[in-house]
Amino acid sequence: MGSAQAHSIVEPGRLSKRVAVVLVALYALFAVVPMAWIVMTSFKTTEDAIAYPPKVVFDPTLEGYVHLFTNRSRQTEEYMQDLPPAEHWWQEIVREDNMVITGPSRFADRYLNSLVIGFGATFLSVFFGALAAYAFSRFKVPLRDDLMFFILSTRMFPPVAIAIPVFLMYRELGLNDTHLGMIILYTAVNLSLSVWILKGFMDEIPREYEEAAMVDGYTRLQAFVKVVLPQAKAGIAAAAIFCLIFSWNEYNFAILLTSGNAQTAPPFIPLIIGVGGQDWPAVGAAATLFILPAVIFTVLLRKYLLAGITFGAVRR
Amino acid sequence: MAEIGLDAITKSYNATVAVDDVSLRVGDGEFFVLLGPTGAGKTTTLRTIAGLEMPERGRVTIGGEDVTRAAPAERDVAFVFQQFSLYPHYTVYDNLAFPLRAPARRMAEAEIDRRVRKVAEQLHITPKLGNQATRLSGGEMQRVSIGRALVREPAVYLMDEPLSSLDAKLREGLRVELKHLQVDLGATILYVTHDQVEALTLADRIGVLHEGRLLQVDTPRQIYNDPDDAVVAYQLGAPAINFLPADALGLDTPGVASGAVRPEDVTLIAADAPADGSVPAVDATVTQVERLGPEDVAVFDWHGHTLRALLTPGQAISRGDVVALRFEPDKIMLFDARGRRVRRGADRNTAAGHGAGPMSQRADTGVRNAG
Ligand SMILES: Nc1ncnc2c1ncn2[C@@H]1O[C@H](COP(=O)(O)OP(=O)(O)OP(=O)(O)O)[C@@H](O)[C@H]1O
Ligand SMILES: [Mg+2]
């Protein structure tokens, strides 16, 4: 209408495009450098890791990773010379520092625990969240607004505030230091977020979609699975990413409620620093491996997120 | 195919009574059109029949069976929704196959394929079968929506303004195709529209719905020629019927508040032609001439009342002309203060013997005054 819209609002001008590219590139650099530094550290030797000035060019080694996955003990030179030749490359790496591997470390266990608990809780949060969100979106639920607020309010206090009651309750129920206990706990915390995200998406899906399916001979549950869930993909992806990030990173409950059996990676990683001096490459390796699943998961779901953003433009 | 019955259906949303005591019978193989302005309760009526809304009162029967409490899936109806309801995550083919793939139906893929292709052929969308449902023009989407109902071979079809979002040409084409299909299939169709042309051309019978109430049910010809209600008279016919207060027409029949005359029943005579005395003539000023093609419509101002008349081809008048208008007295329909038809004694014959809808009963027992 006015001259303010003289140029297209859809296609930005060339100059503003260039400025945007430069800004984004700068930000990307700013965001990526610390991550790159962690990954680089994981491939350095202990000496290179603490060298000053910091080394950007170095001989990569898997020492950090070997240290991360093993327990080692330092031996005398004579002992080392009497040893039979190394059978594996990782034995070789530790022998250079006059050490022998005494057994696997607990990192693999902890990492596996994190995967089981993180993805388990994410699946349950999204599963129950989708059902609850659908019910809130479609049915006449008595006190709907109050219930929705109640669900949100469970997220309002810091989780640590309920740590002691949860601890006592879990002790009574025998859920302390169990995978099931941690999955239930993380699901409970995540559910509020998942219900709220998914309800927003489900409200956007026209009722006619399911109604058409129901008239055509599907039950409501079948219509939900066949029609509503595929339409809510973007919401499911968003909720799943948030839920995974929370349960993947959670530290407080993990340190309080788990120790031997169900301990996740976050409380374990800081322990690495103390073992045999400050082993920064091992810490870097742990951090690198720890970041990986969250990154892969987010990248895999990214296309659904983008599909969700364009959803509103589809004529229906 | 089967018949549909509604017995005294009432449905309200909070304070709004969307459907108010509606009774209706759609015969087996009948093309029934519910006509009404926006907000009349047309969609609500269809949704009640499909089982998507539960009426507060009343009974719904399909094929003689009481389905008032039955789930939508159990009713064997096909519904073409007012808004497009194609699944964007499916192709056209899968959209058409979707109703047939319902787990309860357990239809073989070969049979599904056969039916989908047949319907695609009928609706001329075969080349689009592989398209994503969102990559279609509005007219193609509408065809697919209709197609999704046609693959089913259900007891009854419910169609909610299926042609509303199309341009005039396409609508005309699809209208003809739809009528052909209905005759071929012998289908029972309850079709909803606010377009009187669609109603008049498609329907075996028309029901006029207004503010949730069914005012009249009749054949297109009867409902046009012999409306029971001022609203019905106004709904049908374009240009719309002319309403004039009784005193302006010189009508002094007790109980008559207004008279109405269709534009085609208004005759133009030259201003200086001698009045023959038998028919009242009035002088009116031409304010506008609308050229519609085959017939032109003239708009007149007569003592502050707006009147419309159809012109015969070649009748050359233009803005500002003063002409004499003549209404045949027996073409004037009389209505009381509440908009109900007031019939003269002679009108009885035409009013008798048509449809068995509740409105015709009301008309028979309604106010009648000798003219
Ligand atoms: N879900 C609803 N909640 C509240 N009121 C509703 C709802 N659906 C319909 N109504 C009201 O009921 C009345 C009838 O609505 P309905 O959709 O049946 O009209 P319609 O005849 O189909 O109109 P249109 O030609 O615009 O589609 C309207 O006054 C409408 O506002
Ligand atoms: Mg409607």
From TrEMBL, chain A:
It is found in: Cell membrane. Its main location: membrane. CDD domains: TM_PBP2 (cd06261). Keywords: Cell membrane, Membrane, Transmembrane, Transmembrane helix, Transport. Pfam families: BPD_transp_1 (PF00528). Residues 111-301 form the ABC transmembrane type-1 domain. The keyword Cell membrane applies. It comes from the Bacteria. It is a multi-pass membrane protein. The chain crosses the membrane at residues 20-40, 115-135, 147-168, 180-202, 223-248, 280-301. Signal peptide: none annotated. The keyword Amino-acid biosynthesis does not apply. PANTHER family: ABC TRANSPORTER PERMEASE PROTEIN, MALTOSE TRANSPORT SYSTEM PERMEASE-RELATED. Belongs to the binding-protein-dependent transport system permease family. This is Sugar ABC transporter permease. It comes from Rhodovibrio sodomensis. The lineage of its organism: Bacteria, Pseudomonadati, Pseudomonadota, Alphaproteobacteria, Rhodospirillales.
Automatic annotation (TrEMBL), chain B:
It comes from the Bacteria. The keyword Calcium does not apply. SMART domains: AAA (SM00382). The keyword Acetylation does not apply. Pfam families: ABC_tran (PF00005), TOBE_2 (PF08402). Residues 345-371 are annotated as: Disordered. Residues 4-236 form the ABC transporter domain. InterPro entries: AAA+_ATPase, ABC_transporter-like_ATP-bd, ABC_transporter-like_CS, ABC_transpr_MalK/UgpC-like, Mo/tungstate-bd_C_term_dom, NA-bd_OB-fold, P-loop_NTPase, Transp-assoc_OB_typ2. Keywords: ATP-binding, Nucleotide-binding, Transport. Belongs to the ABC transporter superfamily. This is ABC transporter domain-containing protein.
